[in-house]
Amino acid sequence: MHFTTRNFEILGKSVIPGETKTIELKIATLHTMTELKVPIIVSRSVYDGPTVLLTAGLHGDELTGIEILRQVIRRGINYPKCGTIICVPLVNVFGFVNQSRDFPDGRDLNRVFPGSQSGSLASRFAYRIMQDIVPLVDYIIDFHAGGRGRFNVPQIRIEPNNEELDALAEAFSTHFILYSNNIEGSFRAACDKLGKKYLLFEGGKALDINNDVIEEGLQGTIRFLDKLQMLNNNFTVKEPTREMVCIENSTWIRAQYSGLMQNFVHQGMFVKAGTQLGKITDPYGLVEEPILAPNDGYIICENEAAIVFQGDAVYHISTKLKNDQERITQEI
Ligand SMILES: [Zn+2]
Predict the structure, then answer these.
(1) How many Å lie between the centroid of ligand 1 and the Cα of residue 125?
(2) Environment of ion ligand 1 (residues, CB < 5 A)
(3) Closest Cα to residue 86, out of 153, 148, 125, 132?
């Protein structure tokens, strides 16, 4: 390892080697005269190395990722052996305060990237992130959770056919990897266009903190940093206990009826075609309809709502595993 001689400046503030500094990204001044600022925690090693950005709370109601980054900071995982780690545990402070996914202008921040200088409030904020922070980094892990009531099994989402991302996702080693194309306007698509290596972690559901998901996120982050030789010596790497399942294609199963829903499976389970996953009933004893698995596959998300409407997405099931990988485990 070589001592770094580089200057590192972010938002007009320099961070010297060996220093940890909290820097504020000013977003806007509201009509209440309230200044909105997002704290950014930057930790530099004295040794040269890559720069990693860890973000959570892009959707303000996705709390599990916020808790993962809180623990990363609290435990000192963000003090790198080499290079620089930037933590933004809460990107959308607005949404967090309102317990909402969106920005106060009603926009989904994750659909307005790369943003513009003179666009909507959300768009301007996205622009600042892309101008002031992302150019400084090499790798990004962005932590998300399922929409309200939809519990995602912990998973890394990456674009297909990208060997470098494959290797990084393997280093992180969640039980599931889901290949999915970038969505236009997402943070992921904008980072990808700049050539940044980006992993999207999905786990749990909005307005919920789940310890199993947190553990997967934390251990994955530790393994990821170790792969980049950035993990400081206070931490040991726990090897994953399960082999990864790489999902190439998946589909949503939708409710055929409106009604009360009961669920008989749990996320992460492998089910055979025809397995009864749940049932939908009405209050009068007239309707009692099973929800059946259309194919063999893993349940990667389940809708935990007790009342569903016809057409609601209720289960997300894998339809094709990478290289027709054999089923590895019965369930998690
Ligand atoms: Zn999200």
Answers:
(1) 16
(2) 59, 62, 144
(3) 132
Structure tokens at 214: 């947190």
Using the mean position of ligand 1's atoms as its centre, give its distance from the Cα of residue 292 in Å. 28
Instruction: State how far the Cα of 142 lies from the Cα of 136, in Å rounded to an integer.
Output: 16
The answer to whether residues 52 and 139 touch, using CB atoms and an 8 Å cutoff, is yes
**175: CA distance to ligand 1 center in Å?**
19
Name the residue among 101, 90, 309, 54 with its Cα closest to residue 200.
Answer: 54
Joined together, the tokens standing for residue 313 give 């997405």
How far is CA 47 from its chain centroid?
A: 29
In this structure, which amino acid lies at residue 222? I
How do residues 215-225 score in pLDDT, each as one tens digit?
999 999 999 99
pLDDT tens track for 9-52: 999 999 999 999 999 998 878 888 888 899 999 999 999 999 99
Kindly report, residue by residue over 178-236, the tens digit of the pLDDT.
Answer: 999 999 999 999 999 999 999 999 999 999 999 999 999 999 999 999 999 999 999 99
Per residue in 266-289, pLDDT tens? 999 999 999 999 999 999 999 999
Instruction: Please state, for a pLDDT cut of 70, what percent of the chain lies above it.
Output: 97
* Domains of the chain, each with CATH number or no CATH: 9-227 (3.40.630.10), 251-324 (2.40.50.100)
Distance 102 CA to ligand 1 centre (A): 10
- Are the C-beta atoms of residues 307 and 261 closer than 8 Å to each other? yes
**What is the residue-wise DSSP string for 154-219?**
EEEEE-SS-HHHHHHHHHH--SEEEE-PPPTTSHHHHHHHTT-EEEEEEEEETT---HHHHHHHHH
